[in-house]
Design a protein that fits this description.
Number of helices: 6
Order of helices and strands: EEHEEHEHHHHE
Strand content: 15-25%
Largest sheet: 6 strands, mixed
Number of strands: 6
Structural class: alpha+beta
Strand order of the largest sheet: 5-4-3-2-1-6
Length: about 150
Amino acid sequence: MAFEPDIIVTGPEPSEIALVAEVKITSRSIDDSERQLKNYMAAVRSPVGLLVTPEHLRIYRDQYLPSPGDSIVRVGEFNLTDLLRFEKSGNATADALGFERQVQSWLETLSTESGLAELTPELRRAAQMYIVPALTQGSVRSGHPRLPITA
């Protein structure tokens, strides 16, 4: 199955991708998710990528080097445990969808001063440098259809 990011921020032109985010409910297979995210970023020429779990945020930046394998680097890793406070319900599908929606909502708040004020100083600097520029230029949306959860 082809990789699809969970959240996309498009630029002023809808075809321009300013940021892609992969959201994982667990840290299991995080290295595989990182590899897929980097490959996707290179393919669609996204300058910024995020890998988000309930505990951590990894930020990636494309440096536009000649070698695609070396071009996308991790520029930061931050603890999100106290910030997102996501609690699993035990239903894996509902948890994944709920966390994805929570991350999208959280990203949308980062374009406001109050959203940035909740962050640690280190994460605030990284958000202002890598995430906020993408948010102010474009719109945040799901990277794939989100089906409703049925009981």
